[in-house]
Amino acid sequence: MSSPCFGSAENIVLIFSEHHNWLQKILRRRLGNASDAADLAQDVFLRLLLKPRNFDSLAGARAYLGAMAQGMCIDLWRRKEIERLWLETLNAQPKPVAVSAEHCAVVLETLFQVDTMLRALPVKVRTAFVMSQIRGLTYPEIAVELCVSVRMVKKYMAQAMLHCLVLEVEHFGAI
């Protein structure tokens, strides 16, 4: 007799009914917030519906759901930290800056995308890119800070720029 498959839409309903309350309780404890916990639990099951997975048991499904929820918690915390820092930056401006909710949403979404792009780069490549593009350091200055050659900084920057170009092609199509 073959083991059950828990990846079909019908079985996702079973997984939901078996694990939704457990997952929401775990998330509520991690996040300290019932509203965020409910949203993330819903997102976990939505992702599972959009990209079904096969599980050999309900315990395997629970382990997967827990791991997915943990990753989503980390993403939520990262997004909240980016939002907090951006709002602090706005508040630190010498003149009060009035930003519409729509503009705020666009800026935050852009910041989240940049964060995702930067996290996909190796640490030294990311660091060199930020030093160059955000801090305005020259390649020789970056080389000194990273304890590498200027040639290596050029390689890091080429790798970062290639990554940006690939993302642009993926997002906007052929250039």
TrEMBL record:
GO terms for molecular function: DNA binding; sigma factor activity. Residues 112-164 form the RNA polymerase sigma factor 70 region 4 type domain. It comes from the Bacteria. The keyword Amino-acid biosynthesis does not apply. Keywords: Plasmid, Sigma factor, Transcription, Transcription regulation. Transmembrane segments: none annotated. Pfam families: Sigma70_r2, Sigma70_r4_2. GO terms for biological process: DNA-templated transcription initiation. Residues 16-80 form the RNA polymerase sigma-70 region domain. InterPro entries: RNA_pol_sigma-70-like (IPR039425), RNA_pol_sigma-70_dom (IPR014284), RNA_pol_sigma70_r2 (IPR007627), RNA_pol_sigma70_r4_t2 (IPR013249), RNA_pol_sigma_r2 (IPR013325), RNA_pol_sigma_r3/r4-like (IPR013324), WH-like_DNA-bd_sf (IPR036388). Belongs to the sigma-70 factor family. ECF subfamily. PANTHER family: RNA POLYMERASE ECF-TYPE SIGMA FACTO, RNA POLYMERASE SIGMA FACTOR FECI-RELATED. This is RNA polymerase subunit sigma-24. It comes from Rahnella sikkimica. The lineage of its organism: Bacteria, Pseudomonadati, Pseudomonadota, Gammaproteobacteria, Enterobacterales.
